[in-house]
Amino acid sequence: MLIEREIGEKGQVVIPKDIRSLLGLKVGQKIIFEVKENEVLIKSEQDPERFLEDFFNVPKKNITMKQIKKLLDEKYDIP
């Protein structure tokens, strides 16, 4: 998806509604700007508690790749 916007007098750019909806961005929500070479990535800020929960939710030892794939498929509802 490519959408063009102009930069306003104060250096502001409005994120188009289609993109806000697609990313689930809400009014007042914080976002992160990440600059890579000549590009800017806009990401929604991750909830710190959710990050830690995902980080420490490591599968037990002796689990097969097939079991890991099944767990991920179930978690992210992949058919």
Textual characterization of the structure:
The protein has one domain. Helix content is 34%, strand content 15%. It has a two-stranded antiparallel ribbon with strand order 1-2. The longest helix has 11 residues. The two termini are 25 Å apart. The model has no long low-confidence stretch (mean pLDDT 84).
What's the topology here?
Blueprint: H1 17-23, E1 31-36, E2 39-44, H2 48-56, H3 65-75
Antiparallel strand pairs: 1-2
* Main β sheet profile: 2 strands, antiparallel
Percent strand: 15-25%
Q: Judging from the principal axes of the Cα atoms, what is the shape?
A: elongated
> Could you give the distance between the termini?
25 Å
Poorly predicted sequence stretches spanning 5 or more consecutive residues: none
Quote the average pLDDT. 84
Oligomer: single chain
Order of helices and strands: HEEHH
Class based on secondary structure composition and strand pairing: alpha+beta
Q: Please tally the helical runs, counting DSSP H or I stretches of 4 or more residues.
A: 3
Widest sheet: strand ordering? 1-2
* Helix percent band: 25-40%
The total count of strands amounts to 2
Total number of domains: 1
CA radius of gyration is 18 Å
Q: What distinguishing features does this structure have?
A:
single chain; 79 residues; alpha+beta; two-stranded antiparallel ribbon; 2 strands; 34% helix; 15% strand
